Amino acid sequence: xxxxxxxxxxxxxxxxxxxxxxxxxxxxxxxxxxxxxxxxxxxxxxxxxxxxxxxxxxxxxxxxxxxxxxxxxxxxxxxxxxxxxxxxxxxxxxxxxxxxxxxxxxxxxxxxxxxxxxxxxxxxxxxxxxxxxxxxxxxxxxxxxxxxxxxxxxxxxxxxxxxxxxxxxxxxxxxxxxxxxxxxxxxxxxxxxxxxxxxxxxxxxxxxxxxxxxxxxxxxxxxxxxxxxxxxxxxxxxxxxxxxxxxxxxxxxxxxxxxxxxxxxxxxxxxxxxxxxxxxxxxxxxxxxxxxxxxxxxxxxxxxxxxxx
Length: 309
What we know:
The chain is of the alpha/beta class. It has one domain: Alpha/Beta hydrolase fold, catalytic domain (Rossmann fold, 3-Layer(aba) Sandwich). The protein has helices at about 75-80, 105-115, 130-140, 165-175, 175-185, 190, 195-205, 215-220, 230-235, 265-275, 290-295, 295-309, and strands at about 10, 35-40, 40-50, 55-60, 85, 125-130, 145-150, 255-260, 280-285. Mean pLDDT is about 90; it is low at about 1-5.
Protein backbone atom coordinates (compact mmCIF):
# COMPACT_ATOMS: atom_id res chain seq x y z
CA UNK A 1 0.00 0.00 0.00
CA UNK A 2 1.48 3.33 -1.10
CA UNK A 3 0.97 6.44 0.98
CA UNK A 4 -1.48 9.10 -0.07
CA UNK A 5 -0.26 12.17 -1.96
CA UNK A 6 0.10 15.45 -0.07
CA UNK A 7 -3.22 16.76 1.28
CA UNK A 8 -5.20 13.72 0.12
CA UNK A 9 -7.84 12.43 2.49
CA UNK A 10 -9.21 8.95 1.90
CA UNK A 11 -10.87 5.90 3.44
CA UNK A 12 -9.41 2.55 2.37
CA UNK A 13 -10.08 -1.14 2.69
CA UNK A 14 -6.99 -2.21 4.64
CA UNK A 15 -7.34 -5.90 3.83
CA UNK A 16 -6.77 -8.67 6.37
CA UNK A 17 -7.87 -7.96 9.94
CA UNK A 18 -5.26 -8.74 12.57
CA UNK A 19 -1.84 -10.35 12.12
CA UNK A 20 -1.35 -12.99 9.44
CA UNK A 21 0.50 -16.12 10.55
CA UNK A 22 2.90 -16.15 13.46
CA UNK A 23 3.85 -12.64 14.54
CA UNK A 24 7.55 -11.71 14.57
CA UNK A 25 7.34 -10.26 18.09
CA UNK A 26 6.67 -13.71 19.53
CA UNK A 27 10.19 -14.84 18.58
CA UNK A 28 12.01 -11.83 20.04
CA UNK A 29 13.72 -12.08 23.43
CA UNK A 30 12.59 -8.65 24.56
CA UNK A 31 14.80 -8.81 27.66
CA UNK A 32 17.79 -8.32 25.37
CA UNK A 33 16.35 -5.02 24.16
CA UNK A 34 15.06 -3.63 27.46
CA UNK A 35 16.94 -0.98 29.39
CA UNK A 36 16.33 1.42 32.25
CA UNK A 37 16.97 5.09 31.56
CA UNK A 38 16.83 7.69 34.31
CA UNK A 39 14.93 10.75 33.10
CA UNK A 40 14.10 13.74 35.30
CA UNK A 41 15.01 11.70 38.35
CA UNK A 42 12.76 8.76 37.54
CA UNK A 43 13.41 5.35 35.97
CA UNK A 44 11.84 4.76 32.56
CA UNK A 45 11.42 1.38 30.94
CA UNK A 46 12.74 1.65 27.37
CA UNK A 47 12.86 -0.84 24.51
CA UNK A 48 15.45 -0.34 21.79
CA UNK A 49 16.33 -2.50 18.81
CA UNK A 50 17.49 -2.21 15.23
CA UNK A 51 20.54 -2.60 12.97
CA UNK A 52 24.01 -1.26 13.77
CA UNK A 53 23.80 1.06 10.76
CA UNK A 54 20.15 2.21 10.77
CA UNK A 55 18.45 4.26 8.11
CA UNK A 56 17.17 6.50 10.89
CA UNK A 57 15.43 6.46 14.27
CA UNK A 58 11.76 5.87 14.99
CA UNK A 59 10.16 6.62 18.34
CA UNK A 60 6.85 5.01 19.35
CA UNK A 61 4.62 6.58 22.04
CA UNK A 62 1.71 4.62 23.52
CA UNK A 63 -1.68 5.92 24.59
CA UNK A 64 -3.65 6.21 27.82
CA UNK A 65 -3.45 3.02 29.90
CA UNK A 66 -1.03 1.58 27.33
CA UNK A 67 2.58 0.40 27.35
CA UNK A 68 5.35 -0.07 24.82
CA UNK A 69 3.67 -3.38 23.96
CA UNK A 70 1.01 -1.48 22.03
CA UNK A 71 3.58 -1.56 19.20
CA UNK A 72 4.40 -5.28 19.22
CA UNK A 73 3.22 -5.78 15.63
CA UNK A 74 5.31 -2.86 14.39
CA UNK A 75 8.63 -2.75 16.22
CA UNK A 76 10.20 -5.90 14.65
CA UNK A 77 9.08 -4.77 11.19
CA UNK A 78 10.71 -1.34 11.35
CA UNK A 79 13.72 -2.61 13.29
CA UNK A 80 14.85 -4.36 10.11
CA UNK A 81 15.97 -0.97 8.77
CA UNK A 82 15.64 1.57 11.58
CA UNK A 83 16.71 2.10 15.15
CA UNK A 84 13.39 1.80 16.96
CA UNK A 85 12.68 3.10 20.46
CA UNK A 86 9.53 2.48 22.49
CA UNK A 87 8.91 3.40 26.09
CA UNK A 88 6.56 3.12 29.01
CA UNK A 89 5.58 6.70 29.75
CA UNK A 90 6.04 7.73 33.40
CA UNK A 91 3.14 6.34 35.42
CA UNK A 92 2.49 3.49 32.99
CA UNK A 93 3.89 0.02 32.37
CA UNK A 94 7.06 -0.53 34.37
CA UNK A 95 8.10 3.14 34.51
CA UNK A 96 7.96 5.13 37.73
CA UNK A 97 5.52 7.96 38.28
CA UNK A 98 6.97 11.34 37.24
CA UNK A 99 8.32 13.73 39.84
CA UNK A 100 5.91 16.44 38.69
CA UNK A 101 2.17 16.25 38.07
CA UNK A 102 1.38 14.48 34.79
CA UNK A 103 0.73 16.84 31.88
CA UNK A 104 0.93 16.70 28.11
CA UNK A 105 3.60 19.39 28.16
CA UNK A 106 5.52 17.41 30.79
CA UNK A 107 5.31 14.23 28.74
CA UNK A 108 6.62 16.14 25.72
CA UNK A 109 9.57 17.29 27.79
CA UNK A 110 10.12 13.72 28.98
CA UNK A 111 10.30 12.42 25.41
CA UNK A 112 12.72 15.20 24.49
CA UNK A 113 14.91 14.41 27.52
CA UNK A 114 14.84 10.67 26.76
CA UNK A 115 15.94 11.20 23.16
CA UNK A 116 18.71 13.50 24.35
CA UNK A 117 19.89 10.86 26.81
CA UNK A 118 19.90 8.26 24.02
CA UNK A 119 21.80 10.54 21.66
CA UNK A 120 18.95 10.95 19.17
CA UNK A 121 19.03 14.21 17.26
CA UNK A 122 16.31 13.51 14.67
CA UNK A 123 13.54 10.93 14.67
CA UNK A 124 10.26 9.87 13.14
CA UNK A 125 7.73 10.11 15.97
CA UNK A 126 4.75 7.72 15.93
CA UNK A 127 2.03 8.13 18.55
CA UNK A 128 -1.32 6.47 19.24
CA UNK A 129 -4.19 8.21 21.05
CA UNK A 130 -2.62 10.15 23.97
CA UNK A 131 0.74 9.25 22.42
CA UNK A 132 -0.30 11.10 19.27
CA UNK A 133 -1.22 14.13 21.38
CA UNK A 134 2.23 13.95 22.98
CA UNK A 135 3.88 13.48 19.58
CA UNK A 136 2.18 16.63 18.32
CA UNK A 137 3.38 18.49 21.43
CA UNK A 138 6.95 17.32 20.78
CA UNK A 139 6.72 18.46 17.15
CA UNK A 140 5.53 21.90 18.27
CA UNK A 141 7.82 22.46 21.26
CA UNK A 142 10.92 20.65 19.97
CA UNK A 143 10.64 20.96 16.17
CA UNK A 144 14.29 20.21 15.42
CA UNK A 145 13.88 16.68 16.79
CA UNK A 146 10.91 15.56 14.69
CA UNK A 147 11.74 14.51 11.15
CA UNK A 148 8.25 13.15 10.42
CA UNK A 149 5.15 12.63 12.54
CA UNK A 150 2.60 9.80 12.43
CA UNK A 151 -0.62 10.33 14.38
CA UNK A 152 -2.68 7.18 14.99
CA UNK A 153 -6.17 7.99 16.33
CA UNK A 154 -4.57 10.91 18.14
CA UNK A 155 -6.28 12.59 21.06
CA UNK A 156 -6.28 16.36 21.47
CA UNK A 157 -9.28 17.72 19.55
CA UNK A 158 -12.74 16.50 20.56
CA UNK A 159 -11.48 15.49 24.00
CA UNK A 160 -11.04 19.16 24.95
CA UNK A 161 -14.86 19.36 25.07
CA UNK A 162 -15.27 16.17 27.12
CA UNK A 163 -13.89 17.30 30.45
CA UNK A 164 -16.19 16.35 33.34
CA UNK A 165 -15.08 17.47 36.78
CA UNK A 166 -17.64 15.30 38.57
CA UNK A 167 -16.52 12.15 36.78
CA UNK A 168 -12.86 12.91 37.45
CA UNK A 169 -13.61 13.55 41.13
CA UNK A 170 -15.54 10.28 41.38
CA UNK A 171 -12.71 8.38 39.71
CA UNK A 172 -10.22 9.85 42.17
CA UNK A 173 -12.40 8.70 45.07
CA UNK A 174 -12.50 5.21 43.58
CA UNK A 175 -8.90 5.22 42.40
CA UNK A 176 -7.79 2.36 44.65
CA UNK A 177 -10.74 0.18 43.63
CA UNK A 178 -10.28 0.91 39.93
CA UNK A 179 -6.55 0.19 40.11
CA UNK A 180 -7.18 -3.09 41.92
CA UNK A 181 -9.76 -4.21 39.36
CA UNK A 182 -7.74 -3.33 36.28
CA UNK A 183 -4.60 -4.68 37.92
CA UNK A 184 -6.40 -7.98 38.51
CA UNK A 185 -7.30 -8.14 34.82
CA UNK A 186 -3.71 -7.37 33.83
CA UNK A 187 -2.24 -10.02 36.11
CA UNK A 188 -4.56 -12.68 34.70
CA UNK A 189 -4.62 -11.53 31.10
CA UNK A 190 -3.24 -14.74 29.59
CA UNK A 191 -5.99 -16.82 31.18
CA UNK A 192 -8.80 -14.34 30.57
CA UNK A 193 -8.23 -13.89 26.83
CA UNK A 194 -8.25 -17.57 25.89
CA UNK A 195 -11.93 -17.39 24.98
CA UNK A 196 -12.95 -15.21 22.03
CA UNK A 197 -16.02 -14.00 23.92
CA UNK A 198 -13.88 -12.75 26.81
CA UNK A 199 -11.47 -10.97 24.44
CA UNK A 200 -14.49 -9.22 22.96
CA UNK A 201 -15.77 -8.14 26.39
CA UNK A 202 -12.40 -6.83 27.60
CA UNK A 203 -11.12 -5.17 24.42
CA UNK A 204 -14.29 -4.23 22.55
CA UNK A 205 -14.04 -0.50 23.19
CA UNK A 206 -10.49 -0.45 21.78
CA UNK A 207 -10.65 -2.77 18.76
CA UNK A 208 -13.39 -3.32 16.19
CA UNK A 209 -13.12 -7.13 16.32
CA UNK A 210 -11.21 -8.26 19.44
CA UNK A 211 -12.29 -11.87 19.04
CA UNK A 212 -10.44 -12.00 15.72
CA UNK A 213 -7.16 -10.87 17.26
CA UNK A 214 -4.74 -13.52 18.60
CA UNK A 215 -5.12 -14.22 22.31
CA UNK A 216 -1.39 -13.64 23.08
CA UNK A 217 -1.52 -10.19 21.46
CA UNK A 218 -4.59 -9.11 23.44
CA UNK A 219 -3.08 -10.52 26.63
CA UNK A 220 -0.01 -8.31 26.24
CA UNK A 221 -2.21 -5.26 25.72
CA UNK A 222 -4.12 -5.92 28.93
CA UNK A 223 -1.01 -6.72 30.94
CA UNK A 224 -0.23 -3.04 31.52
CA UNK A 225 -3.61 -2.24 33.10
CA UNK A 226 -4.07 -0.76 36.55
CA UNK A 227 -1.15 1.67 36.60
CA UNK A 228 -1.08 4.76 38.84
CA UNK A 229 -0.76 7.34 36.07
CA UNK A 230 -4.17 6.68 34.50
CA UNK A 231 -6.42 9.22 36.21
CA UNK A 232 -3.82 12.02 36.23
CA UNK A 233 -3.15 11.41 32.53
CA UNK A 234 -6.88 11.42 31.76
CA UNK A 235 -7.12 14.72 33.61
CA UNK A 236 -4.19 16.07 31.58
CA UNK A 237 -5.77 15.01 28.27
CA UNK A 238 -8.80 17.21 28.86
CA UNK A 239 -6.89 20.20 30.14
CA UNK A 240 -4.40 21.13 27.42
CA UNK A 241 -5.82 22.77 24.26
CA UNK A 242 -3.61 22.21 21.23
CA UNK A 243 -5.92 22.97 18.30
CA UNK A 244 -4.66 26.53 17.72
CA UNK A 245 -1.00 25.40 17.80
CA UNK A 246 -1.17 22.56 15.28
CA UNK A 247 -0.33 24.94 12.45
CA UNK A 248 3.11 25.39 14.02
CA UNK A 249 4.10 21.82 13.12
CA UNK A 250 6.66 21.94 10.34
CA UNK A 251 7.32 18.22 9.90
CA UNK A 252 5.40 16.15 7.33
CA UNK A 253 2.45 14.43 9.02
CA UNK A 254 0.61 11.19 8.30
CA UNK A 255 -2.73 10.79 10.07
CA UNK A 256 -4.03 7.21 10.38
CA UNK A 257 -7.41 6.33 11.87
CA UNK A 258 -10.00 3.58 12.17
CA UNK A 259 -13.41 4.36 10.72
CA UNK A 260 -15.07 2.59 13.68
CA UNK A 261 -12.96 4.15 16.44
CA UNK A 262 -15.12 4.21 19.60
CA UNK A 263 -12.70 6.26 21.69
CA UNK A 264 -11.67 9.11 19.39
CA UNK A 265 -14.20 9.86 16.61
CA UNK A 266 -13.07 9.58 13.03
CA UNK A 267 -14.24 13.16 12.49
CA UNK A 268 -11.10 14.17 14.38
CA UNK A 269 -8.99 12.59 11.62
CA UNK A 270 -10.42 14.92 9.00
CA UNK A 271 -10.13 17.88 11.36
CA UNK A 272 -6.46 17.12 12.02
CA UNK A 273 -6.00 17.12 8.25
CA UNK A 274 -7.59 20.54 7.92
CA UNK A 275 -5.71 22.06 10.83
CA UNK A 276 -2.36 20.64 9.73
CA UNK A 277 -2.76 21.80 6.14
CA UNK A 278 -0.75 19.38 4.00
CA UNK A 279 -1.13 16.30 6.22
CA UNK A 280 -2.04 12.99 4.61
CA UNK A 281 -5.13 11.43 6.18
CA UNK A 282 -5.81 7.72 5.69
CA UNK A 283 -8.77 6.05 7.39
CA UNK A 284 -8.95 2.25 7.55
CA UNK A 285 -12.46 0.90 7.05
CA UNK A 286 -13.87 -1.52 9.66
CA UNK A 287 -11.11 -0.69 12.14
CA UNK A 288 -11.10 0.61 15.73
CA UNK A 289 -8.76 2.67 17.88
CA UNK A 290 -5.54 0.67 17.38
CA UNK A 291 -5.01 0.44 13.64
CA UNK A 292 -1.38 -0.62 14.16
CA UNK A 293 -2.58 -3.82 15.85
CA UNK A 294 -5.80 -4.41 13.95
CA UNK A 295 -4.32 -3.89 10.47
CA UNK A 296 -0.59 -4.36 11.05
CA UNK A 297 0.36 -5.27 7.47
CA UNK A 298 -1.48 -2.31 5.96
CA UNK A 299 -0.30 0.06 8.69
CA UNK A 300 3.35 -0.95 8.40
CA UNK A 301 3.26 -0.64 4.61
CA UNK A 302 1.57 2.75 4.78
CA UNK A 303 4.11 4.15 7.24
CA UNK A 304 6.97 2.58 5.28
CA UNK A 305 5.81 4.42 2.16
CA UNK A 306 5.56 7.66 4.12
CA UNK A 307 9.12 7.25 5.37
CA UNK A 308 10.40 6.57 1.85
CA UNK A 309 9.19 9.91 0.49
